[in-house]
Write a structure and sequence with these properties.
The chain is an alpha/beta fold. A seven-stranded mixed β-sheet has the order 3-2-1-4-6-5-12, with helices on both faces. A hairpin with a 2-residue loop joins strand 2 and strand 3. The chain is globular, with a radius of gyration of 20 Å. Its EC number is 2.7.2.7.
Length: 353
């Protein structure tokens, strides 16, 4: 089986071609600010990014012949995890997604490319809006503000399946707490193949991270909103973008921060250790969603490469369950394996409604 996977990001478009389990091409096409500034809206980048995908395939001598094309899922309405065939309803909701992000282009590009190949389906899988929350996890103290979850569903579920396979079992038989450590940090409690609790890692819940503020004191935040000191857009950036490590230390580079700590920077040490402390508390909270019956805690994402962070995080959480570390993320492999699983009948193809 030959699969084309497409993953549009804020400043790049990643593509991969897999033949069965093996990568034939993995490419990361970078976009400059000048290139993207030509487009008023992210959706306007569609033709630009699609043409770059086709050019990259041609440049690498890869014939345009695929059994499936799969794109990174967009920020559509909340849906259960799994593989979805791109249909008209999904495309319409993606074009009018609740939040603007380049990932919204993934399924649209996949659909248009697949349409030119006879019998070739277009898929998305485990988008960031996957919602499998226990209903008790959804309620807050205000009926006006139910919890929503936006998290690293694709990578978390791929890592869960990888860990299960290594243990000679299946994702559906395990209770796991998984933490993705990236620019945003998501923590989810996975019970027998469903993420019954997960934070909104994009814009307002959980531990603070390199770029996100995480959970904030509600009363103080309201006062700040009406202080007249900031516009709405400026405050949004104080939650996602210029927040977390970026706000405290002026950088999101964890390796550079650790070097500063080793050189005696006490402020950097306090901030990074506070982040670790908050991550550990969130992981502990996720364990309670599973009644403490946790088969393993899995740590993944780019920050998982940091021995400083991982060693200190383990000190706080290892009493809960065995800890396994999977540094980085391989969303391209995850997309390809989801497409192959769907074609083989190992994963059900779901209908977006």
């Amino acid at each position: 089986m030959k699969i084309l996977a497409i993953n549009p990001g804020s400043t790049s478009t990643k593509i991969a071609v897999y033949k069965d389990q093996n990568p034939v091409l993995v490419s990361n096409i970078r976009h400059t600010i000048e290139e993207l500034s030509r487009f008023p809206e992210v959706i306007d980048q569609f033709e630009f990014r699609k043409s770059l995908v086709l050019q990259e395939l041609e440049k690498n001598g890869i014939p345009f012949e695929f059994d499936a094309v799969i794109g990174r899922g967009g920020l559509v309405k909340p849906i259960p995890g799994g593989v979805y065939r791109v249909n008209d309803v999904l495309k319409e909701d993606t074009k009018h997604a609740m939040r603007t992000h380049a990932c919204n282009l993934g399924g649209l590009i996949a659909d248009e490319l697949a349409a030119s190949l006879p019998g070739c389906p277009a898929f998305i899988a485990d988008p960031g809006v996957v919602d499998e929350l226990d209903e008790r996890a959804r309620l807050t103290g205000s009926p006006l503000l139910p919890r929503i979850t936006i998290w690293h569903a694709l990578n978390q579920k791929a890592i869960a399946r990888r860990y299960a396979k290594e243990q000679g079992t299946t994702y559906e038989k395990l209770n796991l707490v998984i933490c993705h450590l990236g620019g945003g940090i998501s923590v989810a409690a996975h019970r027998h193949g469903k993420a019954i609790d997960a934070n909104n890692a994009l814009d307002g819940e959980g531990p603070f991270s390199p770029e996100r503020a995480g959970t904030l004191p509600a009363g103080q935040l309201i006062d700040l909103c009406f202080s007249g000191k900031f516009t709405k857009d400026e405050l949004k950036k104080r939650i996602a973008g210029h927040a977390g490590l970026a706000a405290h230390l002026g950088t999101t580079d964890v390796a550079a921060i650790v070097k500063a700590i080793e050189a005696g920077d006490k402020k950097a040490e306090l901030v990074i250790d506070a982040m670790i402390y908050n991550i550990a508390k969130t992981i502990g909270g996720a364990a309670t969603a599973l009644y403490g019956k946790v088969d393993a805690i899995l740590l993944t994402g780019g920050i998982a490469y940091s021995e400083y962070v991982i060693s200190r995080l383990k000190e706080r959480i290892s009493f809960l369950a065995p800890v396994a570390v999977y540094p980085g993320e391989d969303e391209m492999e995850a997309l390809a394996m989801n497409a192959i699983g769907a074609l083989k009948g190992e994963l059900p193809i779901q209908t977006y409604k």
